[in-house]
């Protein structure tokens, strides 16, 4: 089943832009990962909040994407900028617009 | 700014599949709407919950999409199947994978 995940990150005060840059960089790297269908980085009205929407061919593809050393390095760089993580919701994608046929 | 929206619908007990079908039908209709980038229908582990992730060129495109009579008709059909709506979050999409360049 196509796997979806979305969650909210709260950046350390005043450091959202740096975290957004790291995450959009991660999204760019995922262009080469056929298992990743969507990796969308967004901000909300809350000044430190970042939302990420992800869609993957399946959960295994998502989990495997976290293993490479270069991804671990990105996570290590991002962690000090993160004040909190909340609302991570896993979903089974049924279908819709914007997904590969 | 590219507009994102996600929210949770809770179907009347046992009627999730019917509601999912209406929503995926709505997504199919949106294939013809250039303002709609993503309209993804998903279910979570909660038996009656449906999550929808939407991405639009901007909020105006989203708002305009709710006006046509045929969409109003779909909403009218869906309403009796909905027990609750919660967690609707509006976001400004910064970028990422799966969006048109």
TrEMBL record, chains A, B:
The answer to whether UniProt assigns keyword Mitochondrion to this entry is no
Record's protein name: Antibiotic biosynthesis monooxygenase
Q: Which GO terms describe its molecular function?
A: monooxygenase activity
Q: Which lineage ranks, top first, belong to the organism behind this chain? A: Bacteria, Bacillati, Actinomycetota, Actinomycetes, Micrococcales
Instruction: Please give the InterPro entries that the UniProt record associates with this protein.
Output: ABM_dom, Dimeric_a/b-barrel
Q: Which domain of life is it from?
A: Bacteria
Q: List the Gene3D superfamilies hit by this protein, alphabetically.
A: 3.30.70.100
Every copy of the ABM domain together lies at 3-91
């Amino acid at each position: 089943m196509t796997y979806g995940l979305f969650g909210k990150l709260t950046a350390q005060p005043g450091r959202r832009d740096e975290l957004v840059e790291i995450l959009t960089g991660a999204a760019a790297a995922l262009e080469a990962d056929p298992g990743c269908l969507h990796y969308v980085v967004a901000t909300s009205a809350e000044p430190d909040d970042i939302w990420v929407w992800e869609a993957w061919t399946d959960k295994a593809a998502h989990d495997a994407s976290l293993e490479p050393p270069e991804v671990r390095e990105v996570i290590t760089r991002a962690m000090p900028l993160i004040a909190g993580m909340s609302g991570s919701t896993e979903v089974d994608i049924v279908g819709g617009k914007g997904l590969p046929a």
